[in-house]
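Recap from last week: sequence in, structure out.
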Amino acid sequence: MKISIFGLGYVGAVTAGCLTSHDHYVVGVDVHDGKVADFNKGVPPIVEPGLEDLLKRAKERQLLRATTDCDDAIADTELSIVCVGTPSAPSGALDLSYVRMVAGQIGEAVKKKGTPHVLVFRSTMLPGSTEAIVAEKLADLESGDLLSVFYYPEFLRESTAVADFEEPSLAVVGSRDGSRPSESLMAALFGESAAVVNWPTAEMVKYACNAFHAAKITFANEIGRVGKQMKIDAKSVMNLLCQDTRLNISSYYMRPGNPFGGSCLPKDVRALTNKARSAGVNVPMLDSLLGSNDQHLRSLLSLVEATGQREAVILGLSFKSNTDDLRESPMVDVAQYLLGHGLTLRIYDPALNLSALVGANKRVIDVRMPHLAQLLQADLGSALGSKGVVIAAQKCAGIAELAAHITDHHHVIDVNGWTELRELPSHYQGFCW
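Predicted structure tokens:
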């Protein structure tokens, strides 16, 4: 198929690369000239394992190009996937302005083209959003059979997004009335085994999944804090709990450690609880997730303060290993706190390339840490220095590399259960164990 993808961020870029590997011709569309220029060179605008190779092969096979021109993209394709951002408004409500704008542009371009087109929303939106956007921007096209509209939630985890696309843990597609798309479309895009539901059900399942993930992380972290006070290794508790695969389901998020962050869980929990409040629905557990996550972050800061060190090193600033995503990263909050309390701070994160940051990811740094370039160290030894508290948030260096620089003047706080850190000649302290 010939497919245009609107929004070349994490979801859009991965979707583009993976679709080309299945022989689809892809036109990427974005308002950022830099992203478009990179895509036209086969260069990913983000850090995501495996994506660079996919885009490089796609360019070699002439299956990939990018443009800022919506009309050009629609004229050259038969199906469009919308992957633009849906950030949080100051109130916590979801901001759909980018989706509405793109939907309107696509609608006008389809009218100019004059032939049937398929539109697939993949941006995370609250239940009722697809129906509202269609009514506002696309009603005449959809009712006139010039446009078929589907909602296709994504379940891609940053740093494993390519593998998640190829082998999805869950596949759901929504149509207006829950009727099944054509078999050719199911085979080409959604997967023949995908569950087919109506628009609001497909929209809701994304929020249900992310709220559940946030609940699991919060639960594991709270057990970790309680266990720490009772001198219980919460990692062992969670390992035992997760042996019950019949009732406890999955072990993936059941690991005490870092507060949750990133571009999905905080934003989606805020949006869901905001929606519940506006509907007059009381959701005490969901309401408590962000507060508990904030408390977990404060516990980490207290642990750092208790070391008495005046120099600090953060290993891994992004919210997750093998990604450069700084949106709502807990370690950005840690960095700001330490600087505000007068500590000398150094940061080591080899996945971060400041010159490559774009869009919302770049705005995080421009607004919250404009001085990051002075804090970021390219060399591990320079970052660690000769003393200080080392906040090990990610495995961004090997134990042997760390051992060459860590001394008994360092105090290592293990945030994510990297127990090999105990072997280093420093004072070791586990966050929740």
